[in-house]
Design a protein that fits this description.
Length: 473
């Protein structure tokens, strides 16, 4: 396990004697500090972690890494000059570690610790489906290997190092989701994590406002593949059905393994049937083998998630029985949750975030369900040059799928207008500017037997709609 000696060696290059205290985990939120943890005080736009050092210590933190002077009676070790004096004595815990940059120290320690461990890292990136893929891949690999995964969406320059510091000598696999906003970000994460297996889901328009067009997004995501070691050690698992992902094959020295719905792929699926909220059925083909599965993932689009997880299992040497057990694990946490209102309407809560690609997939799921179908669609943020096109595509599909459409937020006007242009009647389309107004409309409108999809960008906080309408148990 990570020790205080490891922390000092990572930052200064000097390994001190008598510092064998084990660090339980790392945190940047004092409320999550536990006994023997390491607290990193990071300055933020609204909250500065330096204000919560004492709270972290009260909860049992062993040490706090700081980047500015603080008023404190706790012992201070200044590591800004690199090495340590010959007569250095480690103070009693809790103590402060002064560095130039707390975040850089977190990343440096995480990279150092990763390199000390014999663990295979699976990196996962893409525009849509990263988190669900991460969860399902981890479930599959856990059938044979002691596996670590990112918690929640800890997939950036802060979250991924925190995850790496949870690694222990007993871990055999680490499944790490890698987010992308700007060029170089995934390359940096790969330099910390050293993945040898990379999985790419798809290339969409989400975050185009910051990242650029789809080609720029594809280049950014391909940094994962460029970081993989050459074949046979390195392996890239790519979506054959996405032309932008296929384009990435030339960007890596790793061996390529394709998955998709085309029989040309190494692993492909057919006979895909939606069973509504009971999941999907499909048949997977790998060489001369074919296996039929019932998977508790909702919507036909989920077959690509199944293919990704099965592909990782196959290249890692798992049996079909192990793979099937992992795929069918009911504990896999998915972002789309089905719940009911007090009067019996079904709510499909997909409020975590939204892009044109994920919203179209959610609408396709809605089309597979019985009842009066209502789409409650919020504006989609960070689409950049794809803003108008993305909202219009979603509106046109909603017109094909839904009995009624309720669009929310300023950009939601584009969705409503596109639905009307696609032939949806005026009385069936409504636009409201805010979430509270959407709640009032739905309270008056929903009835038993209705199915309402609730989806929009996280910044709109459409989860408030579900909280207001779902039945209190």
């Amino acid at each position: 396990m990570l020790t205080v000696a490891d922390v000092f060696e990572a930052i200064t290059g000097v390994r001190i004697a008598g510092a064998s205290m084990i660090i339980s985990e790392a945190s940047i939120d004092s409320r999550q500090a536990i006994p023997a943890s390491l607290f990193f005080a990071l300055p933020g736009e609204r909250v500065d972690g330096h204000a919560f050092i004492e709270d972290a210590f009260q909860r049992g933190a062993l040490a706090a890494v700081i980047q500015q002077d603080v008023q404190s009676s706790f012992p201070l070790v200044d590591l800004r000059q690199g090495g340590l004096p010959d007569d250095f004595q480690l103070p009693e815990a809790p103590f402060l570690l002064r560095v130039e940059d707390s975040l850089k120290a977190l990343q440096t320690i995480a990279g150092f610790w990763r390199r000390k461990l014999n663990v295979k890292v699976i990196g996962i990136t893409g525009s849509v489906g990263k988190s669900t893929t991460k969860e399902l891949v981890a479930e599959v690999l856990s059938q044979r290997f002691h596996t670590l995964k990112n918690q929640g969406n800890l997939n950036n320059e802060i979250g991924l190092p925190l995850t790496l510091l949870r690694l222990g000598p007993g871990h055999q696999r680490a499944v790490l989701e890698m987010g992308f906003y700007v060029p170089g970000e995934i390359a940096f994460l790969c330099d910390l994590a050293l993945p040898s297996l990379g999985v790419v889901t798809n290339i969409g328009t989400v975050h185009a406002e910051r990242a650029g067009d789809q080609e720029a997004i594809a280049r950014g995501k391909s940094e994962l593949l460029q970081a993989l070691p050459p074949a046979p050690e390195g392996l890239a698992i790519l979506n054959f059905d996405d032309p932008w992902v296929r384009w990435m094959a030339d960007k890596t020295r790793a061996q390529i393994f394709y998955y998709g719905l085309d029989p040309v792929a190494d692993l492909w699926a057919d006979e895909i049937t939606s069973m509504g909220l009971e999941g999907i059925q499909c048949r997977l083909h790998y060489g001369a083998e074919a296996i039929s599965l019932h998977i508790p993932l909702i919507g036909q689009h989920s077959v690509h998630t199944v293919l990704r997880a099965a592909a990782v299992g196959l290249v890692e040497g798992l049996t079909w029985e192990e793979i099937a057990d992992g795929l069918q694990n009911s504990y896999t946490q998915l972002r789309l949750v089905a719940t009911h209102t007090a009067n019996g309407a079904l709510l499909l809560d997909d409020t975590y975030n939204a892009s044109p690609e994920s919203t179209l997939a959610a609408l396709n799921l809605l089309s597979e369900l019985d009842g009066r179908r209502i789409a409650v669609l919020g504006e989609m943020l960070e689409l950049g040059q794809y803003e108008q096109t993305g909202h219009e595509i979603v509106g046109a599909r909603a017109a094909e799928v839904c009995s009624q459409l309720l669009a929310v937020g300023e950009r939601g006007r584009l969705i409503a207008a596109a639905a009307r242009a696609a032939g949806m009647r005026d009385w069936a389309v409504r636009w409201v500017p805010t979430v509270p107004e959407a709640i009032e409309v739905l309270r008056a409108q929903l009835r038993a037997g209705d199915v309402a999809l609730i989806k929009g960008s996280h910044g709109l906080r459409m989860d408030r709609i579900v909280d207001a309408l779902e039945e209190v148990q």
